[in-house]
Amino acid sequence: MFMKIFAEKEAEKFLKKEGFEIVEGVFVSSKIGIKGALIKLGLPCVMKVFGKKILHKHKVGGVKLNIKTYSEALGVFTSLKRIKGSQGVLIQKKFSGKEFLLGIKKTPEFAHVLVFGAGGSKVEEKKDVSFRVCPVDKRDMRAMIKETKIGKRLPKKTFEILFENLSKLCELVERHPTISELDINPMNISKKAGKIIDARIVFE
Q1: Are 37 and 105 in contact (CB under 8 A)?
Q2: I need a surface site. Which of 7, 27, 54, 171 has the fewest CB within 10 A?
Q3: Sorting pLDDT into bands at 50, 70 and 90, what band is 64?
Q4: If 0-12 CB within 10 Å is exposed, 13-18 middle and 19+ buried, where does residue 39 land?
Q5: Is the pTM of this model over 0.70?
């Protein structure tokens, strides 16, 4: 079966078109684009390796946080470009907040399943995740958030942002039933806003 994979750059472009909030970023394939990207985004920033075959950026040292100067950005760009499979570097505006995992998995038994839990680079160790078969009603969506450790005692605004984005994911798979996997990890939520920091989508 032919699978179409959207790595971070394409996935975030797709999700932005579908109405999701994405952290501001600029893709650069050479050092020439770095200065313009930093002028647009400001410092400090985050730099990530981009490559369609690089699935786990953290495991290959492909994510660099809190870059504070232009000269530092130049050095980081050089090191990220050396990573096997690198096609360039995604420079993102720094956006801090609590990290969440949101996603969709297509299973043989239940078709599309909605996923929610604790996000970040150590998501496999945390194992703080809940699942519901799509479509998910409002009551069940609230329950799936609250049954995780990270979802307990959340500020009202954070809960509302999560609820809104989980609802959007359910609507998204109705419009795009060929999605077999969609991972948003993390979505960072501050006191007032939530933004997707990283995403990956697999289509059948």
Answers
A1: no
A2: 171
A3: very high
A4: exposed
A5: yes
